[in-house]
């Protein structure tokens, strides 16, 4: 999975001109997948992004342009979700990527055939890229865990298991939406006010975002068969952006002893584009632990993981409000962080999740948990930025926020950047909070 | 849903003779659904139990014997899961039940047509009755919460939210198996031993069962639309038995702060038969709270719930071991309890789950949590029976247990009994623990 090949060459150009522009997030080195409906289309289908265009893979499959594993993989793109493609193997995904890269490359003999299969990204509609069977959310930022722990448990912020166990819990699959799906502010119970005889009930007053990445499982495992570290990454199809909306007041009251429930399951939002692990290969970095942190237990360790288990992905969360949009202000960036600082790697999440025999299925989604950095301006949630709602955030257009208000719109971005290489972008992950219904 | 109708008449007899036997758990008043493959069949299909036989509803649908809503409901039984039937309405389920009851009744004109569609229950294979999109597990036995809480948190057994919030969390859908699917003992991390520098790793030493009921959601709700108490039961298709296997040593180490994860998601087992809520109507009982317990908050209260929100369902868990089976001993009953003692009702679980806008989908499964009673002999888990592994259970064939050992087989039963009415049974929920792989 780490091997760089011709699809990664920095100098590659596409015959789709917009893919070669300097600030394009979907150059030919990226080739992420989504499920979309073109402006003039009747239904949803699988596509691959190239510049400001989307190539219709269902229509391409009908032309039978490839052979071998690439053709098999393309044939799996004829439904309205990525699950069938995900269910194949890393070899299939890689073969399809190579064939698409060659077909979209400047000078390709396929250009005339493919040109009619392109449509505008800007006017497309998107659906969830996959049917998500199970959704697991992890908690892999030590900085987030420490910051949040100190708010929920001031005397005991980081629990003794944190540095040994990749802490995770099951989330709700049914309420995961694709970017652009707005949602209602949740109602719920909150802790009784001082001297009140009963809990309060009403719209959440402490609604928050969580800046995460989502990891789409590709080929799964049979129940009872664990996935070892050395093969873990070959089970991962790709990554998306994930906003794990959280109602902090509901969470504080309900989460003991079995974890968050209604505080999270009203809505989660993911970006439509799934960037494959192979596209991220040029951005792999060593995975290391601080000198005073324990080394991972043997079942969570591998040479490859130490050498290149982390990925340098920059993350960003921005806010717009009804007022800022009316005045045409740009969304205000609230925080920036980086996935490479996570305490656990993707391979460790896969291996830990299956070590007890739990089966993963194609299309399952693993959330990383909020990806906060250690410094100010790197907080992946308002809970952290505002120190539990105590310090307000001033927005440049004259409003301020402790938590999200109605009609606030949160937009997240992720991208990989390095000198001399085209940027790999993840697209947008955005949604607006509507008033409680 | 509470209305008794002609399908509930105690005196009804079927032309399927085995349904009229005194100890039959599938009399004509029951009519539960499953997905099964007859001994001579090629594939799985939907069936309804009658006595010691199963009626093939896919084959019945081909005969178009009913009309109106009953026909529509029967047409939804032509796939290999109950999801399409579940997605209809309580009116449809009721119409199908009435038509099946009339067709299977002694003297029915349909007898000759239906007779060839029957096959033996004893030789059938079963699959999961539905594709389970999301699985939520609740914690509705106050007795269980108190007993377990006192083991995990001796100083703080019952948390302040318990009597206000129906505590629940998301479980794993992928590893839910139908009765008869044996599974491997899970591996995992456990708390460091005293003076050990690192956690331990290996097969769970404290493997346990949890005696629960599963609630299958029928028609769901759109995201953002809550289901009020008055309509909650009309969204419930029926109930099954659920064994929520638990690795207590993994759980104790991993569960803070986000709840149980690998301690539960290696396997859960459900009975193949889904007993409809309508079949349980004769066993409804008032739902009440102890005088010193708070009344439910308004959104969790309704007149119907107070009058008849609970259901009198007897539960039983029994154990056999490799030794006991070799010596042909009957499984030893470890505990008996009753669903009617639960602190929260089915309607309250549905309403609470959706109050924040979370969407339920047809085929979603809600577990009740371990259904323990207050007295000795009513513990729904070994954790409770053995007081956290401190007092062993003596088995009549000369073995004893703190937790489950390899090749132990746990079988759960549930049934409704009352004077002058045929017993309504749920079938078996059974599986065997195999050695860690």
From TrEMBL, chains A, B:
**Which PANTHER family does UniProt cross-reference here?**
FUMARYLACETOACETASE
What's a Pfam family this protein contains? FAA_hydrolase_N
Q: Where is the Fumarylacetoacetase N-terminal domain?
A: 29-114
Record-annotated residues binding substrate?
Answer: 139, 153, 251, 255, 370
EC class = hydrolase
Q: Which cofactor does it need?
A: Mg(2+); Ca(2+)
What's an example Gene Ontology biological process for this entry? L-phenylalanine catabolic process
Task: Enumerate the UniProt keywords alphabetically.
Answer: Calcium, Hydrolase, Magnesium, Metal-binding, Phenylalanine catabolism, Tyrosine catabolism
**Pathway in which this enzyme or protein is active:** Amino-acid degradation; L-phenylalanine degradation; acetoacetate and fumarate from L-phenylalanine: step 6/6
Residues binding Ca(2+), per UniProt: 137, 210, 212, 244
Q: This chain belongs to which protein, by name?
A: fumarylacetoacetase
Q: Which residues form the active site?
A: 144 (proton acceptor)
Q: What species was this sequence derived from?
A: Pusillimonas noertemannii
Residue span, Fumarylacetoacetase-like C-terminal domain: 141-433
Please give the Gene Ontology molecular function terms for this protein.
fumarylacetoacetase activity; metal ion binding
Q: Where does Mg(2+) bind?
A: 244, 264, 268
- Enzyme Commission (EC) number: 3.7.1.2
């Amino acid at each position: 999975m780490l091997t760089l090949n011709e699809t990664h060459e920095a100098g590659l150009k596409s015959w789709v001109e917009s893919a070669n522009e300097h600030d394009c997030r979907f150059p030919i080195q990226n080739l992420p997948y989504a499920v979309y409906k073109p402006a003039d289309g009747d239904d949803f289908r699988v596509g691959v992004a190239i510049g400001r265009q989307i190539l219709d893979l269902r229509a391409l499959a009908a032309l039978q342009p490839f052979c071998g594993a690439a053709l098999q993989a393309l044939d799996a793109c004829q439904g309205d979700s990525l699950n069938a493609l995900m269910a194949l193997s890393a070899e299939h995904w890689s073969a399809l990527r190579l064939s698409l890269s060659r077909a979209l490359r400047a000078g390709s003999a396929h250009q005339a055939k493919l040109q009619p299969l392109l449509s505008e990204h800007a006017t497309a509609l998107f659906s969830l890229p996959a049917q998500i069977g199970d959704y697991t959310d992890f908690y892999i930022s030590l900085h987030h865990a420490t910051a949040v722990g100190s708010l929920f448990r001031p005397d005991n912020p980081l629990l003794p298991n944190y540095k040994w166990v990749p802490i995770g819990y099951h989330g709700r699959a049914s309420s995961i939406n694709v970017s652009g799906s707005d949602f209602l502010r949740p109602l719920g119970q909150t802790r009784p006010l001082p001297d009140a005889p009963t809990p309060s009930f009403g719209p959440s007053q402490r609604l928050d975002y969580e800046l995460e990445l989502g990891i789409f499982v590709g080929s799964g495992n049979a129940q009872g068969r664990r996935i070892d570290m050395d093969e873990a990454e070959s089970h991962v199809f790709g990554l998306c952006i994930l906003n794990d909306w959280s109602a902090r007041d509901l969470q504080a009251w309900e989460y003991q002893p079995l974890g968050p429930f209604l505080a999270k399951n009203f809505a989660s939002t993911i970006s439509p584009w799934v960037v494959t692990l192979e596209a991220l290969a040029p951005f792999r970095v060593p995975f290391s632990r601080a000198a005073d942190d324990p080394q991972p237990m043997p079942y969570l360790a591998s040479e490859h993981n130490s050498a290149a288990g982390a990925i340098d992905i920059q993350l960003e969360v921005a806010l717009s409000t009804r007022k800022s949009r009316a005045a045409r202000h740009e969304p205000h960036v609230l925080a920036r962080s980086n996935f490479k600082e996570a305490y656990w790697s993707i391979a460790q999440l896969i291996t830990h999740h299956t070590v007890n025999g739990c089966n993963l299925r194609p299309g399952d989604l693993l959330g990383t948990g909020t990806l906060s950095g250690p410094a100010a301006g790197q907080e992946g949630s308002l809970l952290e930025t505002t120190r539990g709602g105590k310090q307000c955030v001033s927005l440049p257009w004259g409003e301020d926020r402790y938590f999200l208000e109605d009609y606030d719109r949160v937009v997240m971005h992720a991208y990989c950047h390095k000198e001399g290489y085209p940027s790999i972008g993840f697209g947008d992950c955005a949604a607006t909070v509507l008033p409680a219904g």
